[in-house]
Amino acid sequence: FFQKFTQPKAESSKRKHRSSCACATSLFFLVVVSISSMSHSSWCTAGGSGKGVCPFSVALFAGSAFSYLNYVRLRSKSAVAKCCIDEHKQTYIIAGDIGGTNSRFALHRPGQKDPLLVHIYPNEEALKTAPTYHHATLMPFLKKCLAEVDEWKALGEKEVLSQIQIVGCLATAGPVTTNNDVFMVNLGENGGSIDGNEIEQCQDGLLSLVVRCKLVNDFVGQGYGVLDLDYDKEVIELLPGSKAKMNDLAPICCVGAGTGLGECFLTKSSLATKLGYECYPSEGGHADYVPRGPLEVELLDYLKRKFSSDHRISVERVVSGRGLANVYEFLAQKFPTKVDKSVHEEFLNAGDQQGRVIGVNSSTEGSLAQQAVQIMCAAYGSEVGNAALKFIPTGGMFVTGGLAPKNIGMIQGEDSPFMKAYLDKGRMNGLIESIPIFAVMNEDVGLRGARVCAEREYNAM
């Protein structure tokens, strides 16, 4: 199943051919060995008396039988997966980009990039009363589709339930298990779970339309979404000449800060480049935060106390929307005389939007809000540089997520806090300067990638 999901349809058909050949081979050996064991068992008996059964034939028979039964088992599983699609119904694609703060959904027809409907739900508000994540966000989105998408409106709810089916992919901010579920540490106050199998099995009203709901890591979505960008209109070169330096056979890396911090990389097979890029998630945002100066050392100590950690703090505690809030909290307690009371009061009452409050107020020269954004952006650039050293992504390093376009003034330019830290890699400065790097100015990259993943899932069914 994983191979089906990660490979194009053409490759899937080749595997089917090989499986058919394996089946034919197994059947051939079954027949030949059966005849051999019945007609020539005397070959292996003492004196050729013709009594008994050849042990070698029995072993071959057992091996062939096992191979064939395993093939039947795998084909049965494939048949179960295929039966999810009813060829008499109209299929739609739902893409979801599920972050810690917001859930973005888009409805598409298969094979079409332009969405029929897009909507964003703030998680904190949506999750207050609903029993499950899918009741909190996916159900309202389906109701919105019924109310606003012309072809759904024309059918009415009863006909929609009988004539439409949905294949979806949700790109979620957390490590997805092999059971198609995820626990997102940034979802809600104490984290929350999303279960793709539970969504598929739910028969509650419009949720019953979903016949397949694949979960992927949110940065798998970001990675595939990067491939869908217009590099002339939707990105900014952070080093001059980056577009000209891109190597279309080389790795691509994506690092993005929003509510949390995510990282992924993409590669092509050197033996089959026509298959395109394959994206691999990581939890690089939870690598250790490394302070770059005396004030940041104090920040590290503060965060270790705050989060009851004796030895380390993850870089996400600094480089993210919530990380920005952490940095401001530290500065406010260290420099109480510099606190702007109105900004501080707004910050304290902002809930999960505290980082946004600091970002909005960071244009005030000399303010703690400005200093907090500078510290965060320097740590951001340093971490992006670390990823560049690890993957050498001469296919492109892409800085994505909501914080990049909102703070582009502190990211763009070689004298910005971000780029100063990014380029500060000692003996490897020359290598870092050779890597094309871009800031992505669109915030729908994860949603685009989730659509690509949903299309792959649909084509594999």
TrEMBL record:
Residues in the signal sequence: none
Keyword Kinase: yes
Pfam families (alphabetical): Glucokinase (PF02685)
GO biological process: glycolytic process
Record keywords: Kinase, Transferase
GO molecular function, one term: D-glucose binding
SUPFAM superfamilies found in the cross-reference section: Actin-like ATPase domain (SSF53067)
Protein name: Glucokinase
Organism of origin: Skeletonema marinoi
